[in-house]
Amino acid sequence: MQCPRDHLLITGTSSGIGKATLEGALARGAHVFAGQRGPATDTEAVGDGLLTRVTLDVTSPQQIATAVDTINRHVGDRGLQGLANVAGLGVPGPLEVMPLSDLRMSFEVDVLGQVALTQPVIPLLRRARGRLVFVGSIIDRVTVPFMGALGASKSAIAAISDTWRQELAPWDIHVALVEPGFISTGADEATKARIDRLIAEMDDEQRTLYGQMFEEMTERGYRVQQSGSSPDGVAEVILHALLDPHPKEHYLTGSKAHLAAFLARLPEGVQDRLKREAFGLPEPGSRQDA
């Protein structure tokens, strides 16, 4: 007999938004396949739900194939009720001096990895007329200096989400994009350490051009991030998109998300001035170094 529960695949469940979404889904009695970098586990009862951990690095075709096969063998003809693409990676740095390997890594995780996983999962969603959720960022509407890699990858995933929403509508597969603002995920210290390491690794010319600006801007951003919203709020929104009878196509959630969405409607010159003031960046034409 097939399991009568809702079956969900959630990626990035080791920490932050993914972990909070996993916990919320289990509390609702779902059977969750939790994508993580750790080892796979047998199904176990957790609270009111069931948990099966699957090893899932979205940049690994083999791990994707194994995870999808595991899910397919369990759900059978009933299919999968939902996929939440939560796993992501933020790569900071000035675009002029950013190694292309870092930019490629950002797109491998945040864009190509999401697509690589979603493609083989869609047939499982089709059987269940399920839901597909992507976690973008408000930065896909309002770019931020020194976060160009993240802004580009999240803008790409927003376009992919909107495209799939239209393409999958004939099978009643609902696709939603969640755009969080500033969220304190618990990874703030690791992010700050990564930024400090990037500054330390700059050569003299790079440090002269960008060191002070990058350090000051990211220090301000770090303080805002630390005071951001809890991942639990984003998790609730993701679960609404996955399970509510009347889901939306786009969700704004978290600290300053609605403010940033308003800012995105202002003239670009006004946006630039407000962001310079917020992040303490130099005025246009104020630098003389070549």
Gyration radius over CA: 20 Å
Mean of the pLDDT scores?
A: 91
User: Per the principal axes of the C-alpha atoms, what is the gross shape?
Assistant: elongated
Task: Estimate the strand proportion.
Answer: 5-15%
- Strand tally, please? 8
Structural class determined from secondary elements? alpha/beta
Account of the 3D structure:
By secondary structure, the chain is α/β, with parallel strands linked by helices. Helices cover 50% and strands 14% of the residues. It contains nine helices and eight strands. The chain has an eight-stranded mixed sheet with strand order 3-4-2-1-5-6-7-8, with helices on both faces. A hairpin with a 2-residue loop joins strand 3 (44-46) and strand 4. The longest helix has 29 residues, at 100-128. The protein is elongated.
What's this entry about, in short?
The chain has 290 residues and is α/β, with parallel strands linked by helices. It has helices spanning 16-27, 61-75, 100-128, 148-167, 188-201, 204-226, 231-243, 257-263, 268-279, and strands at 7-10, 31-36, 44-46, 49-55, 82-85, 131-135, 174-180, 250-253. α5 (188-201) runs antiparallel to α6 (204-226).
Give a quick set of tags describing it.
14% strand; 290 residues; alpha/beta; elongated; eight-stranded mixed beta sheet
Q: What topology does this entry show?
A:
Elements lengths: L6 E4 L5 H12 L3 E6 L7 E3 L2 E7 L5 H15 L6 E4 L14 H29 L2 E5 L12 H20 L6 E7 L7 H14 L2 H23 L4 H13 L6 E4 L3 H7 L4 H12 L11
Helix pairs in contact: 1-7, 2-3, 3-4, 5-6
